[in-house]
Design goal:
Layout: H1 10-36, H2 50-82, H3 89-111, H4 125-147, H5 156-175, E1 178-182, E2 185-188, H6 192-210, H7 213-227, H8 234-248, H9 263-275, H10 277-290, H11 297-300, H12 302-325, H13 327-333, H14 338-366, H15 374-407, H16 419-424, H17 427-465
Antiparallel strand pairs: 1-2
The structure holds protoporphyrin IX containing FE (2 copies).
C-alpha cells in the first residue's frame, strides 16, 4: 500500500481563497472602468479615476487573482506529482501572508498614483524588491519538492511549473532594473527604444508565463484527473512544451509593429508569433484527443465543460494573437478596442475557466468531499461563458470599426473621420461590454459561494468522521 505523505494543504486553500478575494475586487473594478468610459461622472475622485483604477484592475486580476490561483494550484500539483511534501511548509505560510500584503500595498500605491508607467510592471522599486523576495520563497519550496520527488518521471505539468518560475524571475528582474531617486520614485536603466523593447519583451512574456504556461500546467493536471483517462500523448505534450518555450521569448516586439524599433526585430517577433501556433495547438489537440470516446462527459462532468471550453478559447486566442502580429492586421487594429477583445477572450475565457476548474477540483480533494452544488457550478460556467462572449465579440466589432474608420482617407489624403467620430461610435459597445462584465461577475459570485459552501461541507464531514 502507498505510504501516506504528509502534504501541506493549508496554503493551497489559503491561496485559492486569496485568489477569489482579489478576483471579486478586480472584476468589480473592471465593470466600473467599463462604465466610466461612457459615463465620466462615475470618476468619483482623483484616486478613483479610470487612469488609476485600470491599473488596479490589471494588477489585481493578473497578480491577485492569477498569481494567487497559480501559487495555490502549484503547491498542490507539485506535491502530488512529486509524491513529496513541501520541504518548508512554514515558509509557504509566510509566502501566503506576504503575497496578500504585497497585493494590498500594490493597490494602495497605484490608487495614490505611484507608478513606473510600464504596463504590468507599474509597481515602484520597494514593491519590486518585495515581489522578488516572495518569488524566491515560492521557488525554494517548489524546486525543493521537485528535487525530493519520489516519482522519477516528470509529468509535463512540472515542466510548465519550472518554466514559469525561472522565466518570470528573469523577466521581472531585467525589466524592473531602475535607479531609485526617492522612496516611491525611480528611473528605468533603459531609455527610449531600448526601454520599449525590454518592456514589451517582458509584457508579452507576462502573458506567456502568467497567462499561458501556468494555466497549461493546471490544464494538463486536471484534465486526466477529471476524465479518469491518461493524457492522449505524453510525447506531444513534451514536444509542445519545449517548442513553446523556445518560441515565446522572441515575440515581444509584435507589440511594437510600426514603431522606431528596428524592422528586423519586429520581423523576427512576427515570424516567431506565427510559429507559436504549432506548440499552442499541440496542447489543444492533446486535450481534444484525450476526450476521444468520452465526449459525453461534457454533459455529465461539470469540470470537463470548464476545461474543454478553456482550451478551446486558448486555441482561438493562439490563432488570433499571431494574426494580430502581422503588419497588415496590426495596422488596422493596434490602438483600438479590438485588443481588449483579444485580451478578455484569453483572460475571461481560457485563464478564468481553466483556473476555476482547477480550484473546484483541488478544493474537493483538499476537503475530501464533492462540490457543494453541481447546478450552481453549471450556472457559473454558463454565466462566465455568456459574459465573456458578449465582452469579446462587442470589442472586436467596435475595434474593427474604429480601425477601419481611422484608416479611411479623403482624395487629398486627409483623414475621412475625426478621432471623436470613431470614439463616439464605441459608446453602445462599451455599454454592452459592461453588461457582459456584470453577467460574468454573477457567475464569479456564484463560484465564490459554491467554493465557500464546499469548504463548509468538507469541514462538517471531516468533523463527523473524526
Ligand atoms: C500564440 C500566442 C499569442 C500571440 C502570438 C499573441 C499575440 C498578441 C499580439 C500581437 C498582441 C498585441 C497587439 C497590439 O498591441 O497591436 C497581443 C496582446 C495581448 N495578448 Fe496575445 N497573443 C497570444 C496569446 C495570448 C494568450 C493565450 C493570452 C492570454 C490571456 C493573451 C493575452 C494578451 C494580452 C493581455 C495582450 C495585451 C497586452 C497589452 O497591450 O497590454 N495573448 N497578443
Ligand atoms: C467582468 C469582467 C471584466 C471586465 C468588465 C473588464 C474590463 C476591462 C476594461 C474596461 C479594461 C480596459 C480596456 C482598455 O484599455 O480600453 C480592461 C483591461 C484589462 N483587463 Fe479586464 N475586465 C474583466 C475581467 C478581466 C479578467 C478576469 C482579467 C484577468 C484575469 C482581466 C485582465 C485585463 C488586462 C490584462 C487588461 C489590459 C488589456 C490591454 O491593455 O489591452 N480582465 N478590462
Amino acid at each position: 500500500m502507498e505510504k501516506e505523505v504528509n502534504y501541506e494543504y493549508g496554503v493551497v486553500q489559503g491561496f485559492a481563497l486569496s485568489a477569489l478575494f482579489w478576483g471579486v475586487i478586480g472584476v468589480l473594478i473592471g465593470i466600473l472602468i467599463s462604465f466610466q468610459l461612457v459615463y465620466p461622472e462615475l470618476n468619483f475622485a482623483p484616486w478613483l479615476t479610470y487612469g488609476r483604477l485600470r491599473v488596479v484592475h490589471t494588477n489585481g486580476l493578473a497578480f491577485g487573482f492569477g498569481l494567487g490561483a497559480i501559487f495555490g494550484m502549484f503547491y498542490y500539483i507539485t506535491q502530488r506529482l512529486a509524491k513529496a511534501p513541501l520541504p518548508f511548509p512554514k515558509l509557504a505560510r509566510v509566502h501566503l501572508w506576504l503575497f496578500n500584503a504585497a497585493i494590498a500595498a500594490a493597490a494602495v500605491t497605484l490608487l495614490l498614483g505611484y507608478s513606473q508607467a510600464k504596463e504590468y510592471a507599474e509597481l515602484e522599486w520597494p514593491l519590486d524588491i518585495g515581489v522578488v523576495v516572495i518569488w524566491v520563497m515560492f521557488a525554494v519550496n517548489i524546486i525543493g519538492t521537485i528535487l525530493n520527488r519520489k516519482e522519477k518521471q516528470m509529468y509535463v505539468s512540472l515542466w510548465y511549473i519550472l518554466a514559469t518560475i525561472v522565466t518570470v524571475a528573469v523577466l521581472y528582474i531585467l525589466n524592473n532594473l531602475a535607479i531609485p531617486v526617492g522612496l516611491l520614485k525611480s528611473y528605468s536603466v533603459y531609455a527610449g527604444v531600448d526601454d520599449a523593447n525590454v518592456q514589451w519583451w517582458y509584457g508579452h512574456n507576462a502573458v506567456g508565463f502568467v497567462f499561458t504556461t501556468p494555466i497549461l500546467a493546471m490544464f494538463y493536471y486536471v484534465l486526466p484527473k477529471a476524465t479518469g483517462a491518461p493524457i492522449f500523448s505524453h510525447r506531444l505534450s513534451i514536444i509542445g512544451f519545449w517548442a513553446l518555450i523556445f518560441g515565446y521569448l522572441w515575440t515581444g516586439a509584435h507589440h511594437l509593429v510600426y514603431t522606431p524599433v528596428p524592422d528586423w526585430i519586429q520581423t523576427t517577433a512576427i515570424v516567431f508569433s506565427i510559429f507559436l501556433i504549432a506548440p499552442s495547438w499541440a496542447s489543444v489537440v492533446n486535450g481534444y484527443y484525450t476526450m476521444n470516446g468520452r465526449w459525453d462527459q461534457m454533459r455529465s462532468n461539470y469540470l470537463i465543460k470548464f476545461l474543454i471550453l478553456g482550451i478551446t478559447f486558448y486555441g482561438l486566442q493562439t490563432i488570433q494573437g499571431p494574426s494580430q502580429a502581422i503588419r497588415a492586421v496590426s495596422q488596422v487594429m493596434h490602438y483600438t478596442d479590438y485588443l481588449p477583445g483579444h485580451v478578455h477572450m484569453g483572460t475571461m475565457g481560457w485563464v478564468a475557466l481553466t483556473a476555476s476548474a482547477a480550484i473546484y477540483y483541488v478544493i474537493e480533494r483538499v476537503y475530501k468531499t464533492e462540490v457543494y452544488s453541481v447546478p450552481l457550478a453549471n450556472a457559473h460556467f454558463w454565466l462566465a461563458l455568456i459574459g465573456q462572449l458578449i465582452f469579446s465579440v462587442t470589442m472586436w466589432f467596435t475595434g474593427l470599426q474604429q480601425g477601419l474608420m481611422m484608416m479611411q482617407r479623403n482624395a487629398d489624403g486627409t483623414l475621412a473621420h475625426t478621432f471623436m467620430e470613431a470614439l463616439k461610435l464605441n459608446y453602445p459597445f462599451w455599454i454592452m461590454r459592461g453588461v457582459g462584465g456584470v453577467i460574468f461577475f454573477l457567475g464569479f459570485a456564484i463560484f465564490v459561494y459554491n467554493i465557500l459552501m464546499t469548504i463548509q461541507k468538507g469541514k462538517r464531514l471531516g468533523a463527523a468522521a473524526a
